[in-house]
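Lecture notes, continued. The same structure-token format from the folding unit now serves as the input rather than the output. Read the line below as a description of shape only.
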């Protein structure tokens, strides 16, 4: 199995969670790749471009592929699993932004969205780079065509969601999981980053991915 990690918005392939899972899987001899979804640059990123990057990585993998997606990466993991259901065997979602850019998800206040549209770009703090970086309004326009909450997710999936998450509403994630019998939800006493819960998450992820039969 090849495991692909999809980082969150304004994060990166070297995030704390990406490094944690990389170390765990490498110890067990499993191919692991944290994709840089900002490549070639954050300013021109769109969800469509990210999905194309994921599709390319899945195509290059010779083995069945499992996806681990965090926040916006979780959104992309759901959409990719729908599109590439014959190649993706299992999915792990960490605080997935299932309502990203839809009503109920506070990407930005309406006034800031209008400013973004008017100016063409808006700066966001990029956690991987440690500084503000501009992002084109095309990112937001592009995101409106995708509906992760309503996407078809047929693969076995684990979802981990913090009950103190200020970015993703745990009640929405709970509704997403309960509507799908193939999804197992774990609600954790943690925030959006889920950093403190990584050992607990690994307890479930290890047997779920490494003991699972390949499709």
């Amino acid at each position: 199995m090849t495991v692909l990690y999809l980082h969150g918005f304004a994060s990166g392939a070297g995030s704390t969670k990406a490094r944690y899972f990389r170390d765990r899987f490498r110890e067990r001899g499993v191919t692991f790749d944290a994709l840089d979804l900002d490549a070639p640059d954050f300013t021109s990123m769109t969800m469509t471009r990210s999905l194309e990057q994921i599709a390319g990585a899945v195509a290059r993998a010779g083995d069945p592929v499992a996806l681990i997606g965090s926040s916006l990466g979780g959104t992309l993991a759901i959409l990719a699993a729908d599109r590439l259901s014959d190649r993706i065997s299992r999915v792990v979602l960490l605080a997935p932004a299932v309502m990203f850019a839809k009503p109920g998800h506070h990407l930005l206040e309406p006034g800031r969205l209008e400013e973004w549209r008017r100016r063409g770009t808006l700066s966001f703090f990029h956690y991987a780079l440690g500084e503000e970086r501009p992002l084109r309004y095309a990112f937001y326009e592009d995101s409106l065509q995708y509906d992760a909450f309503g996407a078809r997710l047929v693969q076995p999936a684990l979802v981990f969601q913090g009950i103190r998450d200020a970015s993703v509403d745990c009640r929405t994630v709970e509704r997403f999981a309960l509507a799908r019998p193939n999804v197992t939800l774990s609600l954790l006493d943690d925030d959006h980053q889920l950093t403190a819960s990584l050992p607990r998450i690994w307890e479930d992820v290890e047997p779920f991915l490494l003991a699972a039969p390949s499709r």
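Point for the exam: The domain at 2-210 is CATH 3.40.50.1820 (Rossmann fold).
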